[in-house]
Amino acid sequence: MDPRADKEIIIKTAEDIEKMRIVGRLAAEVLDMIAPHVRANITTDELNHICHDYIVNVQKATPAPLNYHGFPKSICTSVNHQVCHGIPGDRKLKEGDIINIDVTVLKDGYHGDTSKMFVVGKPSILANRLINITLECLYLGIQQVKPGAHFGDIGAVIQEHAEKNRFSVVREYCGHGIGKIFHEPPNVLHYGKPGAGEKIVPGMIFTIEPMINAGARHVKLLPDDWTVVTKDHSLSAQWEHTILVTDSGYEVLTKRSDEAI
Questions:
Q1: Per-residue pLDDT at 4 exceeds 60
Q2: Pairing between β-strand 82-84 and β-strand 219-221 as defined by DSSP bridges
Q3: Can you give the pLDDT at residue 7?
Q4: What digits encode the pLDDT tens for the residues 114-162?
Q5: Cβ atoms of 49 and 66 closer than 8 Å
Q6: How far apart are CA 207 and CA 212, in angstroms?
Q7: Mean pLDDT value across residues 49-67
Q8: Left (φ > 0), alpha (ψ -120 to 50) or beta: where does 109 sit?
Q9: What is the tally of helices (H) and strands (E) in the chain?
Q10: CA 118, 83, 207: angle at the middle one, nearest 5?
Q11: Beta carbons of 193 and 166 less than 8 angstroms apart
C-alpha cells in the first residue's frame, strides 16, 4: 500500500479472473463461517484459530496475512477504536464491542481480500450508525466502478458521504490492486476529487476498503508496528470488497451470501 506510481497496473487475463472469482468466493465464505462465533467472551485469538483451520483444512488454501512482512496471525481483528491490522490475541470480546475481521485467502497463487464489521450483542446508537454509514460508503464507491471512470470518483463519493454524516475518512491507508500479488498498484484512495487519478479499465482488480472514524480522521500506529488506532480513541469501522472491472461496470468477487450488490 505504498505509493507505487512508477509501477504499471496489471490488467488481468481471463484465466486470472476465473482464479480470482474462486478465491474471492472462498474469502467471502470465511466471513460467513465465522459470524456465529463472534460473541461475548470469545478471544480474538480463538477467532483467528477458527478461521485458520477453516482456510487450511476445509478450503485447502492459505491465510495470506500469516507471516506477511512478519504479521503473526492469519486474520486481522480490529476492535472498537482500532482502525485496521489489529493482531488477534487474548482479548475477550464483550457486549457492545464492534469488530472488523479482515480475511485474505491465497489459493492457486491468487489472493481474495475482504472484511466485514461484526457486533457483539447490541451496539450503541453511534456504533450502529457508523457501521451502516461505512457500508454505504463502500457500496457508493463500488457503484462508481466502470470503464472510463477515474479512481478519484471512488474516493470523492466515499468522502462526501462520510463527511455529510459528520464522520471522517482515514487517509493513511487505502485500497489496492490485487491478484497474484497481495498488494499491487493502484492505490485506491477513499477521499479525493471526481475525475482525478488514473482511468479505470476492464480487467483491473482492486480492493475498496474505506476506514471511517466517528471522531477525527487522525490515527497512530501502536508499538507492535501493526495495529492502527484512532488518535482520539473514537470508534472506527471498515468494510472491504475485491472488485473486478468488467466491460460494462463491475463484479464484486468477494460478495457474501447476505448481500444484494
A1: no
A2: unpaired
A3: 74
A4: 999 999 999 999 999 999 999 999 999 999 999 999 999 999 999 999 9
A5: no
A6: 16
A7: 98
A8: left
A9: 4, 15
A10: 80
A11: no
Sign of the C-alpha dihedral computed for residues 199, 200, 201 and 204 taken in this order: positive
Give 73-98 pLDDT, tens digit per residue. 999 999 999 999 999 999 999 999 99
Interatomic CA distance for residues 89 and 215, integer angstroms = 26
Q: 10 Å Cβ neighbour count for 160?
A: 15
Give, as one character, the DSSP assignment of residue 17. H
Per-residue DSSP letter, 240:
B
Question: Beta-carbon neighbour count of residue 217 at 10 Å?
Answer: 22
Q: Which residues pair with 53 in a beta bridge?
A: none
What whole-number distance in Å separates Cα of residue 96 and Cα of residue 106? 32
Quick one: angle between helices 151-164 and 125-143, nearest 10? 160
First to last CA, the chain: 26
In the numeric block, which cell numbers belong to residue 87?
493482531
pTM here is 0.96
Q: What single DSSP character describes residue 56?
A: I
The single residue listed with the C-alpha cell 496489471 is 10
Task: Cite the DSSP H helix spans in 105-213.
Answer: 125-143, 151-164
Q: What's the rounded Cα separation, in Å, for the pair 229 and 206?
A: 24
Mean pLDDT of the chain: 96
CA 160, CA 148: separation in Å to the nearest integer? 21
Pairing state between β 175-177 and 98-107: unpaired
Any idea what the Cα angle at residue 159 is, between residues 9 and 27, rounded to 5°?
55
Q: Locate 40 and state its grid cell.
A: 461475548
Q: What residues form DSSP beta bridges with 101?
A: 77, 116
Of residues 1 and 206, more confidently modeled: 206
